[in-house]
Amino acid sequence: MNAGNPKTLTEAVVRYADLDVCHAYMASLKWPDGCVKCPKCGGENVGIISTRRMFKCRNKECHKQFSAKVGTVFEDSPLGLDKWFVAVWCITNAKNGISSCELARALGVTQKSAWFMLHRVRLAMKRESFDKLTGEVESDETFIGGKAVNMSKSRRARHPAGTGFVGKEVVHGLIQRGDKAKGKASKVIATVVPNTKKKSLLPIIRTNVEPGTYLATDTAGAYSGLTEFIHETIDHAEAYVRGRCHTNGLENFWSLFKRSVNGTYVAIDAPHLFRYVDEQVFRFNERKTNDAGRFALVMPGVVGKRITYKQLIGAGPEGLRYDA
Ligand SMILES: [Zn+2]
To answer: How far is the CA of 130 from the centre of ligand 1 (A)?
Structure first.
């Protein structure tokens, strides 16, 4: 990062109002080695149409014109990179999340555009790979629901009235506890799961936690048989803490998540819940990073991912609705 990089939202708005700056930044993310490749034919003989901040393939059979947005979550968006960059800044740095209404007002776009932008940026916030969790790890689930989540039709069918699951979605979490002596902050992995059964939870634990790790859970039957870990259970009917056996780290994460869901968003459609979970996980795991650092972490995540408006609204239970 050089000295010209913004540190605050105000500085970001000023800096990224310059479309040439945005264009150069995008191109550097897209083609880190500086060698621009044609997305159609893969050719490297590419010219620049500087007046339009576009590239043009010089291959005679191709002649494809493209921008640095190609193959990123910004592709096909009519909104300029100036708006996109400020959106990424606002979304990644809003402490409790930002609603589509707030974002729409801040950027001067429609709420529908802002909603779409939020989901695209959430996709960029999703971290693709993690090292396996080690040290001391907690596993626990929470129910998100009631007014905050509009349940999908299929879910309603699976959990008819009276089963205790009505209007509730299950989110499973793992937290690797922080280590103050080593200056390491705690880290969360959270996943929306269909239910709290063994077959839904154990594969997630086995995929994400190093064998031999200390693992604290409650006494739920789903957690039995995790013999490859140093597994201790606490019966919440009796106590919440017994030495290092507790799930307080995750309780804290869940309460932050619920505060953000209830305080910021009017309603979340159940099929989109995982995107809000991803957003919260990013915010939590990068809580020690500063605003410029979070922005710089998310920006490379826009490359190589795409989601269309059709894909997004297709995920909704009633088709053409969009949540907060
Ligand atoms: Zn080409």
So the answer is: 35
Across 129-144, average pLDDT: 91
- Ion ligand 1: residues, CB within 5 A, are 38, 40-41, 43, 57, 59, 62, 64
How remote is the CA of residue 45 from the centroid of ligand 1, in Å?
Answer: 8
Tell me, in angstroms, the distance from the centre of ligand 1 to residue 76's CA. 19
Provide the domain limits for residue 209: 136-272+279-285
49 Cα to the center of ligand 1, angstroms: 15
* Spacing, Cα 50 to ligand 1 middle (Å): 18
Average pLDDT, the chain: 87
Q: Domain with 185 in it: what CATH number?
A: 3.30.420
The answer to the question of residue 114 being in a domain is no
**Would the pLDDT of 317 be above 70?**
no
Q: How many domains does the chain have?
A: 1
Lowest mean pLDDT among 54-58, 112-116, 317-321: 317-321
Q: How far apart are CA 79 and CA 130, in angstroms?
A: 32
31: in domain:
no
In a domain, 162, yes or no: yes
Q: Tell me the CA–centroid distance for residue 48 and ligand 1, in Å.
A: 13
Question: From the CA of 301, how far away is ligand 1's center (Å)?
Answer: 25
Query: Is 197 a member of any domain?
Result: yes
What pLDDT is attached to residue 152? 54
